[in-house]
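Ticket #4471: complex job returned nothing on first submit. Input attached below:
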Amino acid sequence: MTYPDAVESSTIAEMEETIARISSHKGVEGVMIMDRRGAIIQSTLDEEQTSTHAMILSELTTKVSSIVGMLNQDDELTFLRIRSKQREIMISPDNDFLLVVLQNPKSIE
Amino acid sequence: MGGSTMNGMLSLTTPSFFLPEMMVDFNSSVIGGDEWTRPRRTAPHRSRQLSNKFKIFLRKLFPQLQFVRHSNSKSSLYIMQSSKSVPSLKLNKPRRLEDATKPPDSDLKSRQEVDVSESCPQKPSEPNLTLQKKKKKPRDAEYQSSVQVQEPVRRVIKPENQLDLTEDELEEKITRILTGDDPNKPKNVCKFSFKDRCFKPDPPGQVDNMAVHFSLEGSSMHVDSDECKKYVDRVGRPREQEEPDLKITTDGQSIATTISASPTTSTSMENTKNQFNFSERASQTFNYPLKSSGVNTEPPPMTEYQDGVSQWIIYDSYKSDFLVNQSMDKQEGGPRISLEVNLSSVFEAKHESNDPKANTIHSKSMEHSLKILERLVNQNAEDEIYHDYKYFEDKADEFRKGEGTLLPLWRFATNKTGRKQVTSLCWNPLYNDMFVVGYGSYDFMRQGTGMVCCFTLKNTSHPEYVINTESGVMCVDFHPHHPSLLAVGFYDGMVSAYDISRGKGKLIYSSSLRSGKHSDPVWQVHWHDNGCLSKEYNFYSISTDGKVANWTMVKNHIKMEPIMHLKLSNHRTIMEDSDEPAFTGLAGGCCFDFNKKLEDLYLVGTEEGSIHECSKAYRGQYIKTYDSHHMRVHRIRWNPFHRDIFISCSEDWTVKIWDHKSSKCILHFDLGNAVGDVCWSPFSSTVFAAVTTDGKVHLFDLSQNVREPLCAQKVVKRARLTTASFNMKDFILIVGDDRGVVHSLKLSPNLRKLCDTDETKKEGEEEEKVDGDTFQHSKMMRLLALLGADKNR
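Support reply: We reran it on our side without changes. The output follows.
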């Protein structure tokens, strides 16, 4: 079977590399990939943290995206950044998955 | 017996002393039969006298009757007995008491009244007692005399005055009638009325002297009566539907039964509640306000199943199902096998479905998200640098005139470049944050593969795209109108065109041996900017093999067309080395630049150090040759604002500014080291930057200082700077070194003055409406005039 959305193996490797790069970046606490319902596909965090984050963040994203849709029906959520004192949570939602990165910008200083 | 009722009042007293006790009511006490009741209210002594008189009176009336007087303290009873009955007593026949008391005269039909008084029961007992007493004696005597006689002998002792009655007289029945009148009540009491002087009945009118003999309270009542209504109201209405026919058919009795039954039926049917202490109460309860609460639950585990269906899959599944059914029919122990078959098919399907799921992580959208996230992570991490990039202004510049600094921002490098050198830089004409870096090597001995990296300021840690090439990249150039088109020249003399629009470098055209190629490294490529006149994109390239070529991209291949063969200029060689045989070869072209205003005109810098001015119209012939440098010319650039001015830099440590009309050097600067690149700034006609091999960046603003650079800053240690390029929008200069690193530098406020501070005040007002280009042009003109005046002096 062929998939129209498929990418070449070289770029797959590139993406894996990108994930590794992001997770090894200074201040990055973890990178998670999950589906829209919160099921983990890939994660660099430990199991417990991953499950809690996945559960809450997937729900939050669903809510926010619905809010965005409510405010403007033609609109769509493309990115979600949550900045807190401790860290920043960045969520990149897609139809199939959520890409979440937890970063602590202060750890660099 | 001729008992006649004596009506009328027998008055024994004179009217003068009327006493009610003395009155005897003969009307009420009826002399009838053998009974006589003496009136109660008579005084005893008088009544005795009266009774004696009465007895005499009665004997006279009834000579046959005997009077028996029974008396107690209060009353006396005279029993008149006929003397005829006495002989009958002699018979051994028992006589009833009633019979004995009955008057023998049955002819007497007159009403007889028996006063039901307390004296009555004594009447039969008295003679019996006397009888029993009298019996005892003769019985004992008889018993002694004749033992055989079992039955006690009865001897009737008759009183002397007892009447002897015949059998018939005794048998005679005397009927007595009970009347409703009370005989004791005087019916016709008369009183003397002194008023009228005569006796009058008292009370006047009818006297009610009814005697109540028997009274019994009944339990039944009439339906229509008030009592019944009250009863129904109190107890409850009897069920009418229950016994309707009873009510209709029968009367009082049935109604009575229904009424008596009604309390039980009604209670049983209607009142099922507790009858004793039941109480009905109602109260309103407190209404709690509604609340809504939510709980986060762990999302239930889910699985996604996905599969594609094609005709052959359907066919196969049908076939397997058919086989399973067949095996089921054949053997009963088949289900296990069929189950296995099913399971295996399901498993296969699952296995297939795994592929697209794994693919979601590697989808293009994921790539996109990853790219965005990497940028964000970078921006978070390098927050300070981004702030500096955008907002930081060196305030020290206000106090030092004619000097400026360069603020280093980012280092762009990848570990993939290895030991490659940065050979070329080019900003994207559309996206101001994007630039490409060509990696290669200037060293002939260290040639290897090359690389083109596309960096953006948004992601400073990693290149957006990487294009790996077989040979070292020597030059890159973006098409000015098609920002995705990238021309690349290689060390091995090849040129290529890449399309980077699809998120990654895609080779669209590449030169080959068949299409023709340079035989030496291609030092510079330049897109021919002819607007949109020609459909075919074409670019020029220059190589040290002495050729300037035009590459045209036709449908499926690239076409090379040499437009210039750089001949060695003879005048210098002849002049200087006349003995040596003249070079027959071609001059090695190192750099060129096309004039933007004069389309045909272009300048070529050669390895030998000379600059030739050529035209596309005249092939194989120089228009002009500048006696410029002694060593290899690294870069020639036309001034972006003034069409006659160009700048050149060379290995011989110098940077020179020329006017192509006068063909003489206007200015020259000795930077003390080989100058790798020189670059006009896009914002000011008088500002240019030059990078040297000692790692310094020299920044000049001729309008401020025509002799010295405003800034000569060492950017890198132990590295040679090879290239430099100004950002088109921001005041950013990027410089590449021979270690594969690109540095970005921010110009301090002094370095990016668009004009002299004095002039801005004067001319800013005058030439407010003049646009930037003409203003810069005029600025350069003024500078030239100034320099010309200096030289003349």
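The interface with chain A takes residues 296, 298-299, 301-302, 304, 308, 352, 355-356, 359-367, 369-374, 376-378, 380-381, 383, 461-462, 504 of chain B (CB under 8 Å). Closing as resolved unless it happens again.
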